[in-house]
Design a protein that fits this description.
With 273 residues, the protein is of the alpha+beta class. It has 2 domains: 221 residues, Class II aldolase/adducin N-terminal domain (L-fuculose-1-phosphate Aldolase, 3-Layer(aba) Sandwich), CATH 3.40.225.10; 32 residues. 45% of the residues lie in helices and 12% in strands. The protein has an 8-stranded mixed β-sheet, sandwiched between helices. Strand 1 and strand 2 form a beta hairpin. Helix 2 packs across helix 5 and helix 3 crosses helix 6. It starts with 9 loop residues before the first helix and ends with a helix. The structure holds zinc ion.
């Protein structure tokens, strides 16, 4: 589906965006990034009008005419259904990032596994992630739909396009709903690969020098990575190794082998009586 980015007639753009949000809904539902009425998406129309998804509706089966329009301060202007309560976070993003024209929030299982385990995503693992997403921060927890929830994104908004939301899910921003959707696919695929690698003994990072090459390539694509500007270590998450997912996996393995050992001894003792 091609997007006109608001360059054409506003009525036509709004119609395209209504279709685009419904299509993104179908895709995230099919890929099991949401269950029941989960998730919410939005797109910036002209002026301060935001087209968003309604509450209490499966996002896999929305109709274009059902989508409400709200103002940047959250007043609903039109639509037969009430707008999602999580629209506050979207509005905060549009206020802080004039370049952002769309937001997608869902609960994809592998990214949400990192969110509920409160494990920051490692850096310097896959070239595509460094090139196209950069760092993916883990935000702090707040009750969804509140002003506090919107505020948890604020420290990260200036420099990031994908976020893992503690004990909640994931969120991406972009220039249109499909860019957000593809960023979400990339994030979920990355988390899935990390968890598969954890079963094989853990992931290995590329070197700082190799990471620097990727971030320099990213710069040629027009994005200056925050880490380059800050002059900090490119690959560290600042998490002690004892708290990493890989090491937790090792602890779990040790516990399982201990249980197996005890079970074998108990069975042996029963056999001998
Ligand atoms: Zn949510």
């Amino acid at each position: 589906m091609s997007i006109s980015h608001g360059q054409t007639d506003p009525m036509r753009y709004e119609a395209e965006m209504r279709e685009a949000l419904c299509e993104v809904g179908r895709r995230v539902w099919k890929r099991e990034y949401i269950a029941s009425n989960d998730g919410n998406f939005s797109v910036r129309l002209d002026g301060d009008r935001i087209l968003a998804t309604p509450t209490m509706v499966s996002k896999g089966f929305m109709k274009p005419e059902e989508l409400p329009v709200v103002t940047l301060d959250g007043q609903q202007l039109s639509g037969p259904l009430r707008v999602t309560s999580e629209v506050k976070a979207h509005l905060e993003i549009y206020r802080v990032r004039p370049d952002v024209r769309a937001v997608v929030h869902v609960h994809p299982p592998h990214a949400t596994a990192f969110a509920v385990a409160r494990k920051p995503l490692p850096k310097c693992i896959l070239p595509e992630i460094e090139l196209f997403l950069g760092e993916i921060p883990l935000t702090s927890y707040a009750t969804p739909g509140t002003d506090e929830f919107a505020a948890t994104l604020r420290p990260f908004l200036a420099n990031h396009n994908a976020f893992v939301l503690t004990n909640h899910g994931a969120l991406t921003v972009g220039s249109d709903p499909f860019e957000c959707y593809y960023r979400m696919e990339t994030l979920e695929q990355y988390c899935r690969i990390l968890l598969l690698a954890a079963n094989l003994g853990g992931w290995q990072q590329i070197s700082e020098v190799q990471a620097l090459e990727l971030l320099q390539l990213r710069e040629k694509l027009g994005v200056v990575d925050r880490r380059l500007e800050a002059g900090e270590c490119l690959c560290s998450t600042g998490v002690p190794p004892s708290q990493s997912v890989v090491n937790q996996r090792t602890d779990t393995d040790q516990m399982e082998s201990l249980i197996e050992d005890i079970t074998a001894r108990v069975l042996e003792a029963i056999r001998q009586t």
